[in-house]
Write a structure and sequence with these properties.
single chain, 92 residues, alpha+beta
Length: 92
């Protein structure tokens, strides 16, 4: 799956990693619902770090369609809330 981190670029990620990412996504969703800004910031950073660590960056000139778009590291709680579906940022 191709994942885009807004403002950074794209990463190719194996589907086997989505169990780990979904756990972080669930935490992020709970923190957003509670309005816990500090926990939200920490978990968003952990989610983006996991995508970077587990994925393989695509070249900057690659024009692959992104199947999943994640917010930039400095995105606000409000901005991320607007990106959410009922499943969080990561479906499933």
């Amino acid at each position: 799956m191709i994942v885009r981190i807004m403002g950074e670029g794209q990463v190719k990620l194996d589907d086997s990693h989505f169990i780990e990412l979904n756990k972080l996504d669930d935490e992020l969703l709970e923190e957003m619902e509670s309005g816990d800004e500090a926990a939200f910031r920490r978990t968003l950073g952990a989610l983006l770090d996991a995508v970077r660590r587990l994925g393989t960056p695509l070249p900057d000139d690659a024009l692959e369609p992104s199947e999943l778009i994640l917010p930039a590291p400095d995105a606000t709680l409000t901005e991320v809330r607007e990106m959410l579906s009922d499943d969080g940022l990561i479906p499933g």
